[in-house]
TrEMBL record:
Originating species: Aphanomyces astaci
Keywords linked to the UniProt accession: Cytoplasm, Protein transport, Repeat, Transport
GO cellular component: cytoplasm
One GO BP annotation of this record: protein import into nucleus
Lineage of source species: Eukaryota, Sar, Stramenopiles, Oomycota, Saprolegniomycetes
InterPro entries attached to this UniProt entry: ARM-like (IPR011989), ARM-type_fold (IPR016024), Importin_beta (IPR040122)
Superkingdom classification of source: Eukaryota
Matches recorded under PANTHER family: IMPORTIN BETA
Subcellular location: Cytoplasm
Protein name: Importin N-terminal domain-containing protein
Length: 183
């Protein structure tokens, strides 16, 4: 019930705790995967989720969802693109960096959500371009280096015709950010 609390710090801490449990709990967390996803999904889509006083708590709930999606294969693959649509996080910058680093690690490891559903690859590419264009992180931060490595890996994963299509769907700011990175 703490995740659904009206008190933002409690909601944030509970979401963070669920994220840790998902990442570190292994098989012991399996019975809780589906109910936890349902709870967090309801939370991030609640009426007050993106209100200024709740945004950090919601960011932690989105991050917890990502941890579960990246650690447990039993969930429907349709959840991953829906989760990507919630990114990038803009309230809790620390959590945003940690989450983007987990996405980058998934790219570098050719995670199942990318290798088995290639339609997610352009979505991740667009997400990283968006993060770069928003300049959420300084170029010397570890997360920036992780994004650069992941983007280089994506360039080899994405066929040219798909890359061209993704490129055309990007904003001018996203294109400029990628140009600067690859220059």
């Amino acid at each position: 019930n703490c995740v659904a609390s009206e008190y933002p710090p409690l909601r944030q801490a509970a979401s963070y705790g669920l994220s840790l449990s998902a990442r570190l709990g292994g098989a012991a967390f399996v019975p809780y995967v589906n109910p936890t996803v349902e709870l967090l999904w309801t939370l991030v889509h609640s009426a007050d989720a993106w209100e200024p006083f709740m945004v950090n708590a919601t960011d932690n709930a989105v991050s917890a969802l990502g941890s579960i999606l990246l650690h447990f294969d039993s969930l429907p693959s349709t959840l991953f693109p829906q989760w990507l649509a919630l990114l990038p996080l803009r309230g809790d910058v620390e959590e945003s960096a940690a989450l983007i680093q987990r996405v980058c690690a998934a790219v570098l490891a050719s995670h199942k959500v990318l290798s088995e559903d290639p339609s997610n690859v352009p979505r991740v590419l667009s997400l990283l371009a968006e993060v770069l264009s928003l300049q959420l992180f300084e170029p010397d931060q570890p997360v920036a280096k992780d994004m650069q490595a992941a983007l280089h890996a994506l360039r080899t994963m994405v066929p040219d015709h798909v890359m061209k299509s993704v490129w055309q769907s990007m904003s001018a700011a996203q294109q400029a950010a990628l140009h600067a990175l690859f220059a």
